[in-house]
Structure formats: C-alpha cells, structure tokens
Specification:
Helices cover 8% and strands 34% of the residues. It has 543 residues and is mostly beta strands. The longest helix has 13 residues, at 402-414. Residues 12-122 form the Tectonic-1-3 N-terminal domain.
C-alpha cells in the first residue's frame, strides 16, 4: 500500500541525530555491546574491566578541533588505587589558532540530505532530469529575467566574490566541461577568479553542424557579461584572435579577427567549427568586471568524424597589473622555472621587486651551430630541480680586441640583464621583500700568468649557478624553498695570438640544485604509529 511505502521511505531516509556531546563520543568503541580493550570511553566497560586496563588508547576526546573554544573529555587511569580506577574529566579547551570557528551555526552540515526516492508518481520526472548522459542542478536564480520589476535592493552595490558564477544577461558565462563521461556539458558556469582549463568531446554531424550551438562562435560571445551581479551594466565579449587549424594540424592566425565565422557545411566538410575557446577577464580590485575577450581556434571536420574534441580555458587579470606566472603554491614544483627579478633603482628601502622580461632565471642555450657569437640572444629558463649544462665555442683571432671580446662573452653567459634576486617560493609576490633571495656573485680564475709583464687579458669562459634549497613546512607536505643562490664566473687568461693564428675556446654554463634539508637524527622516528582501528565514519562529515 502507498501508506506503507511512504512510511518505509521516511524511515529509510531518517538519520540519527548527530552526537555533539564529547562525553558521549568514543572513537575506539568498535565492538557492539562489548568492552573494547584500553578504550576508557567505552560505555560498555564496567569498573572491573577498567581495572584491567594498562593505558587509555584515546586519552582526549574533542568534537570539532576547528572550534575556538569547546569541551574536551579527558580519560586517564589511577594505577595507584586498589584496584586501578578510570578517571574522567570534562574541561574547557581553547584553540590557539587565530583561524578558528567561533560557533557552529550551519546545522545542515551535521545531517545527511535524504534523496528523493523513485515512486510511480515521480518516476517520469526523475527520468527526464537524470536519465541523460549529462545532467546539471542549475539553480533557478541563474536565469535573469530582464523584464521583471527591480527588487527593493536592486540599487545596492554588489561585487563578484571568489568562485561566484559570472552572470550574463541571460544566465551565466558557460565553460563547457565533461560531467559524467567525456561528453561536453554546457551547464558548467565559469567561477570568478577561478582559472580553469577543460577538455571534452562533442558529437558532430556535417549535415547538422550549422545548427549545433556548441560548434558556433556566436554561442560563446552572444551574451554580454554583467559587470557586477544584479546590475544593468553590461560588458561585451570581444573577439581577441581567431586561429584556423587545418585538417593536418597546421594553424594560421587570421589578420581580420572582427568577422564572425559561423559553421558552414561544404560538401563532405564542415568548416569554422569551434575547437577551442580561451576567455580572458579583466577585473578591478572591487570585484567588478571591466573587460572580457575570447580567443578562438576554428577547424574543420570530415563526414566520417562522429565527434570532435574541444578545449576551453579562462584566466583573470586585475586592472593595471601584469599577470605573473607562478612556479608553485607556495613551494617550487620540480620542472617549473625559477622566478627572478631586480630591485628598483633609487629606492631607500626594498619596496618592491621588478621581474625581468620573462620573470625567470635563464642560462645560455646551446645551438646546433655551437657558435657563441650567434647564441647571444638564445636563453633557456632554469627549471627547478633540473641540473643543466650548456655551452658553445668561440673562435678567437689575432685581430680581436680584449675588452670587447670579454664583454661579448659576459653577455653570452649572463644575458643582457642578469637578475639580482631569486624568489624563495614559487608564488612569491613582488611586494614581499623577505621572499626574495639575493644572488651572490663569485669570481675565480682558471689560469695565472707565469710572467706578470706579459701582455694578456682575462675573458670569462664559464658561469656556474648553484641553487641551494630546503624542505619547508610539515613532514606531511613539505614545500621547496630556495635559501641561497651563488653565481660563480670563471675566467681564463688569453695571451696575444700571433698574426694569422686562431684559437677555439669552449664556453660553458651550468646549474646545480643542492638539497640542504637537515637529515633526521639517528634513531629519530619521524612517523609514530598508533595501533587503532578507526570506524568507517570517523572523519564524517569530511572526506
């Protein structure tokens, strides 16, 4: 009967009330209606069983360790008593962290939401909502009705918050992404200040390609973006660039990027379909969007193709700032460039750092010709954790002057602008003065003159960079931090060559990374072990 089915569903969906009293919490109580050994909070244990305990496996029980102030149940054993007794105390515990929760006012987080059970009445509705390959729970509030009367707070000042969906005049800025499978779902909203990059597959048909919205440029730029939520100020999405990709993968940048190119079925080909979209959003420090641009990659598919892979990306830049690529957050990631920069001239204090052209530490890049004079502008970024060596050869003749030659080799080794500082972390900001490590310069001479009166000159032939780094932070998730950088310039003595003679000198540049983390002391046990079997819901409601 329907009443019996409804009662059964209600009973199945009901969940026990959450236990927040620490005196009733016991994570070591694993056996039902039995006393667990050395579990001093087990309510099934009698005083006689407590007297047999040797220690309390869980001496302190707290509710939520993120709370600023909470009750804590402390358990101990009085071994001097005869027989030994369990001691229970309920104390107030204060969290020393400044990032603590004052009160748990979101009660819904303590309960499991009951899913809607299928019934003969709602089965068709559930099938329509969840029966397809991809579905979404799009809130009704994302659909903006422009004809509806303005609410009383329509004139209030709003701003985008981190992660909030970017609203448009019709709904929100869409960033297609795979949901259940690899097929594209257009219901994924782009979040404010959330850099994303997705790839998904979209079904395609040459006969119907012109009618598939996700393959058209118009689908991604037709809706204007709201400058701030719940406002009438619009920001149009402009076309930044259009790149056309041929069937063999070659790409060509179109000079005329203000022409809208729509999908076109031409024989057995479908032209101008969207293969990739890259959004770039410019915003102010108050959380308002002032500019939006989209870069497109268009391509073609043949009649045999049943699907096409699309890529989507979105990035954000604040007004009057330049985007700085990071090499880790916070510690360096192996394989990413070492960030470097300069101190501004004329500053009495280190107010900020100006990064070089690429914001990276670079060394000489080897070329196929191995000619030093032709490799002055070829630079390779120094990648964190990678020991590198490169070089070239210099052909010296008797007509070459010493000082210009030495300056040329110095430019080859150091580049046009060798940085003064290196970022200690992968996400060090320019204004954080203490996060930048100065580069120490050393000089060494490979050869010395046997006759001081003999005419000669010193030319640089090698530059060795040593980067010392250490593991910073906890043992669970250590972060790589650069603590010292030394650049050693090696020179050699160049004697005056006789007329008509030549000499070839090898020039090398190298980078070595040295881990100076303090090793564990002998006999130190870094990972203590606890022989406790935790219940399956020990970390609820966290995963």
């Amino acid at each position: 009967p329907a009443d019996t089915l409804g009662a059964a569903q209600k009973q199945a969906c009901s969940a026990p009330a959450p236990v927040t009293d620490v005196a009733s919490l016991c994570v070591c109580d694993l056996l039902v209606a039995q006393c667990d050994a050395n579990c001093c909070c087990d309510p099934d244990c009698s005083p006689e069983e407590f007297s047999l305990f040797t220690t309390c496996s869980i001496p302190v029980v707290v509710g939520d360790s993120h709370l600023c102030r909470q009750k804590a149940a402390v358990y101990s054993l009085d071994v001097e008593a005869n027989p030994p007794e369990r001691i229970f105390q309920l104390i107030d515990q204060v969290n020393p962290s400044i990032f603590c929760i004052h009160a748990t006012n979101y009660k819904q987080a303590l309960y499991l939401r009951c899913p809607e059970m299928p019934t003969p009445e709602n089965f068709d509705d559930l099938l329509n909502e969840f029966g397809s390959a991809a579905f979404s729970a799009e809130p009704e509030g994302w659909n903006v009705d422009t004809e509806a009367p303005n609410p009383p707070d329509a004139n209030e000042t709003h701003s985008y918050q981190y992660g909030a969906p970017i609203q448009t005049e019709h709904a929100f800025l869409r960033l297609p992404s795979p949901v259940v499978s690899s097929w594209c779902s257009d219901a994924n909203p782009a979040g404010f200040l959330v850099n994303q990059a997705t790839k998904c597959i979209r079904s395609v048909s040459v006969e119907k390609c012109a009618s598939i919205q996700g393959l058209s440029m118009l689908f991604y730029i037709s809706s204007s973006i709201l400058a701030v939520p719940k406002s009438s100020q619009m920001v149009s999405v402009t076309v930044q660039s259009i790149v056309v990709q041929s069937l063999d993968g070659r790409r060509t940048l179109l000079e005329d990027d203000d022409v809208l190119r729509l999908p076109l079925a031409l024989g057995e080909l479908c032209l101008n379909i969207v293969l990739g979209v890259s959004y770039h959003i410019t915003y102010t420090d108050t959380g308002a969007i002032v500019e939006a641009a989209a870069a497109f990659v268009l391509g073609a598919v043949t009649k045999e193709a049943l699907s096409v892979q699309q890529s989507f990306q979105i990035s954000f830049t604040q007004v009057n700032t330049k985007p700085v690529p990071l090499s880790g957050n916070p510690g360096y990631v192996v394989g990413l460039p070492v960030r470097a920069g300069f101190r501004p001239q004329g500053y009495p204090f280190l107010a900020e750092f100006l990064t070089n052209k690429h914001g990276q530490l670079t060394i000489l890049q080897s070329t196929p010709s191995q000619d030093c004079l032709a490799a002055q502008a070829a630079r390779a970024p120094v990648l964190f954790g990678y020991n590198m060596i490169s070089g070239c050869k210099l052909r010296i003749t008797a007509a070459m002057k010493c000082q210009p030659l030495a300056q040329t080799l110095l430019d080859v080794l150091k580049g046009q602008s060798f940085p003064e500082y290196v970022a200690s972390f992968g996400n060090s900001q320019a204004l954080d003065v203490l996060d930048w490590v100065p580069i120490t310069h050393l000089h060494s001479s490979e050869q010395r003159l046997s006759n001081p009166l003999q005419s000669s000159c010193q030319i640089p032939v090698a530059l060795g960079i040593e980067v010392k780094w250490t593991k910073y932070g906890s043992l669970v998730n250590p972060q790589a931090r650069i603590v010292n950088v030394t650049a050693t310039l090696s020179t050699t003595t160049l004697k005056q060559l006789p007329s008509g003679r030549e000499r070839i000198i090898p020039v090398t540049s190298s980078v070595v990374f040295t881990d100076i983390s303090s090793p564990a002391e002998p006999g130190y046990k870094a990972w203590p072990t606890i022989n406790i079997k935790l219940p399956f819901d020990f970390f609820y409601p966290f995963v």
